[in-house]
Amino acid sequence: MIRVVTLEPFEDADIDALCKLLFQAYALGCERAGHLPLPEEAESKEEKGAYDAALLLEEAESVKLVADDKLLYITRKKLLQPEGPLGRPPTFGMAQFGGQRAVVSTAHFPSELEENTEEFRKRLAKQAVREIGMTWQLHSCLDPKCAMQPSWAAPYETHVEPVLCNFCREKSEETIRLANA
Amino acid sequence: MPTQEQTEILPPESAGTIQSADELLDGDRVVYPKQGVCRVIGRQAKEISGMKLEFIALTREEDSASILVPVGKVPTIGLRKVADTTELADVFDLLASSFDDPELDWKVRHRMHGDLLSAGGILGVAEVLKALQGLSNLRPLPQKERERYDAARHLLVNEIAVALGVPHATAEDYIDFALVPPPGVVRPASKPRRLATLPPKPARLAARRAPAEEEEEEFGAIGLEDELDLGAEEIPPDEEEAEEPEAEEEAEAEAEEAPAKKPRAAAKPKAKAKPKAAAAAGAPGEAGAKAPAKTRAKAKPAAGAAAAKKPTAKKAAATGTAAKSARKPDEGAAEEKPKRATAASKKKPATDDDAASPPPARAPRAKKPE
Questions:
Q1: Residue among A121, A119, A118 at smallest CA distance from A104
Q2: pLDDT tens-digit profile of B317-363?
Q3: Which of B125, B130, B143, B174 to mutate to test the interface with A (most CBs of A within 10 A)?
Q4: Helix, strand or coil for residue A50?
Q5: Does B151 touch chain A (CB under 8 A)?
Q6: Considering only alpha carbons, which residue of chain B is nearest residue A157?
């Protein structure tokens, strides 16, 4: 089961659409699990108003989960990651690789995408599919139509459907099956 | 693919390879080729088939799988320390470099990538990732290569995460950031500073060399070495074939214009066919029976075709040397060899023997329609 928790108020219709699209992508139950506050401890020291993504995942409050459940946080706040060898990559979301928690931020979404629209819902769902996929140990994908493409890649905006390619779908199904077993 | 010239050969020690089991201490983190980052637990003694063996016990960090490595095998399996900052800099430099032409021959690519992954170096894993990413820009990857891409990516993400002390998702983003720069980020086209080096494979090289040497010896023993142009310095058969018709035409033209003229360089290729014809006529059974199928196929265009094209007249034209070579094939071959050593020497003026022989003017022409 995928449980969606909002860290800021979002339109009900958007979250319902997100749950529906996540269910379609993974064939796994998805439900809205309420609203929780942003953890103050995760606030970034480098940039005001931004949050450290890894710390947010660790510090955010949780809802009741069972072993195979996944927890998805949704926020509008900007997320940051430590600077890498080639610079700081834009952070659209983050997940505990092979773990339970993931977070998606709408801060880097294109400005023309307005909430409560079909495009926004699909974009949000696509990002959520990617982050949830990371919790099932899916890596970034080469297929331009796959949701596991890097979030800033050009095809990510042109192919809006939140779907996985065959390879990623099979891999995720296998992981889910093994988890259930 | 980057050329071999760009590679820098490093001794295994500098690449962080574990040379002895004594270097491993409990709690150390090491990288096992194709398995990923492991932690040393300690040493274990086990009795297997009545033999007491000592093992280094490792546990794979990713899923806590146990790995036992015999102490004696430690230096040979490619176990190495986790990449340091210098190696990581090289890895990201490679990932961010401009895409070169990917290897399009799948067999070469498959073997090369397999070798790179088996060698276990982080740079080799990055090279596989980069090459497959480059290939996927041209066309979708086949299933096996897609799996290999995923495996390489998994290994690289794990090691970078451990080496930099960041979460796996962050390491994944660092790799994506290097491979696929976001819009607005422009990186100058650059070649990678360093590429992975593969350890030599003496066994495989020896296995490859052995049949070639045997074949050469075999041809030498049956006296075909000279006919089959096995000499390393000799020009390739394609060039030889390409040259022959021209030379023939030239010779024929000259013979028509001035039949009394002394035959020049053009007469040489014809002299070349003498021993072949002689061998074919003299002892066809012997050569045909001894030579393997491959040899026969190779000999066909050289000896067979030449003999078929200009059967009698050319033989007659080459009476002097042909007779000699027919009498003493080994001597004839020995005499011929230095003459045909290079393309340049081929175009030397004809010898006195050749000059003394009657010019092969009309006879081949008359026979050609056959």
A1: A121
A2: 444 443 344 344 444 433 444 343 333 344 444 444 443 344 444 44
A3: B174
A4: strand
A5: no
A6: B183
Inter-chain touch A140–B143, beta carbons under 8 Å: no
Asked if B172 reaches chain A (Cβ–Cβ under 8 Å), the answer is yes
* Residue keyed to tokens 């990371």: A134
**Beta bridge pairs of residue A31:** A3
User: pLDDT tens digits for B255-312?
Assistant: 444 444 444 433 344 434 444 433 433 333 343 334 443 434 343 444 444 444 444 4
The partner residue sitting opposite B167, judged by closest CB among A97, A142, A152, is A97
List the 108-127 stretch of B: residues with Cβ below 8 A of A. none
Contact A51, A77 (CB under 8 A): yes
- pLDDT digits over A71-129, tens only? 999 999 999 999 989 989 999 999 999 999 999 999 999 888 888 899 999 999 999 99
Closest among A103, A69, A74, A60 to A14, alpha carbons compared: A74
Identify from A97, A156, A169 which residue to disrupt to test chain B contact, counting B C-beta atoms within 10 A and taking the largest count. A97
Contact B96 A86 (CB under 8 A): yes
The answer to whether A43 touches A111, Cβ cutoff 8 Å, is: no
Which residues are within 8 A (CB) of B78 and not within 5 positions of it... i.e. 6 or more apart?
B17, B32, B33, B118, B119, B120
Of residues A22, A103, A121, the one with CA closest to residue A62: A103
Interface predicted TM-score (ipTM) of this complex, two decimals:
0.95
**Within an 8 Å CB–CB cutoff, is residue B130 touching chain A?**
no
Confirm whether pTM is higher than 0.90: no
Residues of A in contact with B174 (CB under 8 A): 84-86, 89
Residues of A in contact with B92 (CB under 8 A): 84-86
* Smallest CA–CA distance from B170 into chain A, residue: A81
Cross-chain Cβ contact A152/B140 below 8 Å: no
DSSP A51: E
Query: What H or E segment, with its residue span, contains residue A127?
Result: helix A118-135
> Cβ contact (<8 Å) for B182 and A89?
yes
